[in-house]
Amino acid sequence: MPTPPPPHHRRPRWGWLLLLAGLLVLSIIVARRLEHPRGSGHAAADGGAGAQGHGARGPQSVVTARAGTRDVPVFLTGLGAVTPTASVAVHSRVDGQLMRVAFQEGQNVKEGDLLAEIDPRPFLSQLEQVRGQLARDKAVLENARVDLRRYTALLEQDSVARQTLDTQRALVRQYQGIVKADQGAVATAELNLAYTRITSPVAGRVGLRLVDPGNIIHAADATGLVVVNTLQPITMIFSVPEDRVPEVLEKLDARQPLEVQALDRTRQRLLDTGTLLTVDNQVDPNTGTVRLKATFPNRESRLFPQQFVNARLRLDLLHGATVVPTASLQHGVQGTFVYVVQANDTVAVRTVMTGPADGEDTVVSQGLRPGEEVVVEGADQLTHGASIRRHAATRGPTAPGVGGSGTGAGDGGR
């Protein structure tokens, strides 16, 4: 009969089983720990709160403003260049020595004011010469007329041949022509003498002197004596998009005066206000714009020829338009929107249609009523339904001013 195995040979099997079971439990615990790390419950809660407008983090600090109503002008803007109403390069009409310059550089002159004088002595001598020739030829003509009257009387007595009378009549007509030529020469000499006094052809501002006294000047000189620019009034040429020209022409044809503002480079300072004169007759194919010309009184001399300024053409006036600060407008895939403050100090997303901008404000044509409160600052952290806390006193839309974008008609629905 065989001997049974010793009891200690069966114990290691149970030990291995217990060890494997322990390892299995440990691996399950580790796996669960890795799948759900510590604190994941709090993260989920935070995520849920964030989806509900960051409620768990508390109200967002914002600055708000209320939509207002006022009349808003509609502008067309463009870059303009100032041009003088008239620009005349003053030349001498006769040749001679420049004796005197009668103006100060930069001086304002009136039409007809003396600018310079040329030596008149050669022209005085020429005038005396042609006057003497005229007097001599007049005497010859008078003598021929006396002979004609005598020959006419003798012909009635049949004491002279008719051919002699006809010859004398032709001689009188010849002398009459010579006298007329002499009279023309006298008029020319008088005119040349008058041209020795060079006067301003227009009223305006004198530029820098181009020729000094003592120089011999000629009527054919390419360089004149000085340039006179008319600055009061003054004009400006600027360009607007071709698709806006029909609106401008419609108002011009209706004899409606169109106001044009001239602003400095920063668009913050109003230099002068004028009116539109005319529209060019062609489109620039390179830029797709049309040139317009406006006139300004320029009483304070703030505009100067060749100065670059910003032009604003006032096309229309929107009466009682709803306006909000431009900073309150947000842009997303759904278009332009604002955060409207609700009664419970939360915000709601509201899609709006915008119009022209004026200063720091923009017209809202649809989607917002006057008096509604919108978020101006702090909107970058907001979502629909978020709680807010006003960080500063509520302010209203700004008053109309010179600066700002000054854009023309609105974008419709941006």
Structure, described:
The protein has 414 residues and is α+β, with helices and mostly antiparallel strands. It has 4 domains: 56-72 and 319-390, conserved putative lor/sdh protein from methanococcus maripaludis s2 fold; 77-85 and 228-317, Elongation Factor Tu (Ef-tu), domain 3; 93-118 and 198-224, RNA polymerase II/Efflux pump adaptor protein, barrel-sandwich hybrid domain (OB fold (Dihydrolipoamide Acetyltransferase, E2P)); 120-195, Helix Hairpins (Orthogonal Bundle). It is built from 5 helices and 20 strands. It has helices spanning 11-35, 40-51, 121-156, 162-194, 245-253; strands at residues 60-66, 68-90, 96-101, 108-109, 114-118, 197-199, 204-206, 216-217, 226-241, 259-263, 270-279, 289-296, 308-325, 330-332, 335-341, 347-351, 353-358, 361-366, 373-377, 388-390. The strands form 4 sheets. The chain has a 6-stranded antiparallel barrel with strand order 2-9-12-11-10-13. Strand 10 and strand 11 (270-279) form a beta hairpin. Helix 3 packs antiparallel against helix 4 (162-194). It is rod-shaped, with a radius of gyration of 48 Å.
> Strand order within the widest sheet?
2-9-12-11-10-13
Q: Which structural class fits the helix and strand makeup?
A: alpha+beta
CATH class of the largest domain: Mainly Beta
Distance between the termini: 104 Å
Write down the secondary-structure element order: HHEEEEEHHEEEEHEEEEEEEEEEE
Strand content: 25-35%
Number of helices: 5
How many structural domains does the protein architecture include? 4
Largest sheet: 6 strands, antiparallel, barrel
Portion of residues in helices? 25-40%
| CATH fold name of the largest domain | Elongation Factor Tu (Ef-tu), domain 3
Biased composition (Gly residues): 47-56, 401-414
Subcellular location: Cell membrane
Domain Multidrug resistance protein MdtA-like barrel-sandwich hybrid: 88-228
Domain Multidrug resistance protein MdtA-like alpha-helical hairpin: 126-196
